[in-house]
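Renewal narrative, Specific Aim 1. Our central claim is that a sequence can be written position by position from structural information alone. The example that follows is taken directly from our test logs and has not been curated for this report. It begins with the C-alpha cells describing the chain, in the order in which they were read.
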C-alpha cells in the first residue's frame, strides 16, 4: 500500500500559491487536496473551478478535489475540465450516490466518498465496491485548523476492517487536525492518505513537508 501526503491548499498563502505548491511537490507530496465549499452543505465558501484551472499547470501532483457541496453531480464535468484527477463526494450531500459515482467514472476520474464525523461507517458499505478511496473526516467539515476528533481512530479501524472483509485495498484518506504529533496513530489505525493543511503551509513549507514524508516513508 502506498502512503501519500495530500497538502490542503485551503491553508496556503495565496499570494504565493504556485510557489508553495511546487515546494510540496518537490519534497514528496504526491497529491494536492482542493477543498470546495458551497456555503450550504458546510457554512464556509472556498474556491472553485477557476482556481483549480489556474494551478493545474504548475504541478504534476494528483489533483484531489474534495467537494463539500450539495448535489455535486451538477459540477462533475466542470471539475474534470478544470483539471481534477480524483473527485471525492460526501455521502450526506447526494440524493443519488450511485448515480453521482457513475457520473465521475464516465468523466474519467477516480472516485472518493466521504463521511462526516456523525455518520456511521456502516453507511459506506453499499458503495465500497464502487470507489477508489474513502475519506474519513476527523473534524466537522467547513473550517481549517480544527482539533482532531479522537473517535475518528475507531472509524478508521472499522473502515479498514470492512474493506478487508471484502478483500479490498481501497485507499483510506483522513482529513482534519493531523500534525506530525498524531499522524502515526492515524496510519496505525489503517489510513494511507493524509490531508494536512495548517501543518504543512503554516511556517516553513519545505521543512513541514519533509517531516511528514519522513514519517510516511517509514510505512511503505
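The sequence written for that structure reads:
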Amino acid at each position: 500500500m502506498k502512503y501519500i501526503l495530500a497538502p490542503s491548499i485551503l491553508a496556503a498563502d495565496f499570494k504565493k500559491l504556485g510557489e508553495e505548491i511546487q515546494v510540496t511537490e518537490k519534497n514528496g507530496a504526491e497529491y494536492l487536496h482542493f477543498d470546495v465549499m458551497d456555503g450550504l452543505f458546510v457554512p464556509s465558501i472556498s474556491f472553485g473551478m477557476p482556481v483549480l484551472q489556474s494551478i493545474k499547470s504548475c504541478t504534476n501532483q494528483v489533483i484531489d478535489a474534495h467537494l463539500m457541496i450539495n448535489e455535486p453531480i451538477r459540477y462533475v464535468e466542470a471539475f474534470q475540465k478544470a483539471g481534477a484527477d480524483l473527485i471525492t463526494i460526501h455521502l450526506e450531500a447526494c440524493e443519488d450516490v450511485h448515480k453521482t459515482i457513475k457520473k465521475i467514472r464516465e468523466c474519467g476520474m477516480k472516485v472518493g466518498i466521504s463521511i462526516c464525523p456523525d455518520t456511521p461507517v456502516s453507511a459506506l458499505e453499499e458503495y465500497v465496491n464502487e470507489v477508489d478511496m474513502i475519506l474519513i473526516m476527523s473534524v466537522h467539515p467547513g473550517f481549517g485548523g480544527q482539533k482532531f476528533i479522537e473517535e475518528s481512530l475507531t472509524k478508521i479501524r472499522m473502515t479498514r476492517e470492512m474493506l478487508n472483509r471484502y478483500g479490498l485495498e481501497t485507499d483510506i484518506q483522513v482529513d482534519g487536525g493531523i500534525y506530525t504529533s498524531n499522524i502515526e496513530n492515524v496510519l496505525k489505525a489503517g489510513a494511507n492518505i493524509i490531508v494536512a493543511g495548517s501543518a504543512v503551509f503554516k511556517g516553513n513549507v519545505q521543512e513541514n513537508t519533509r517531516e511528514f514524508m519522513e514519517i510516511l516513508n517509514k510505512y511503505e
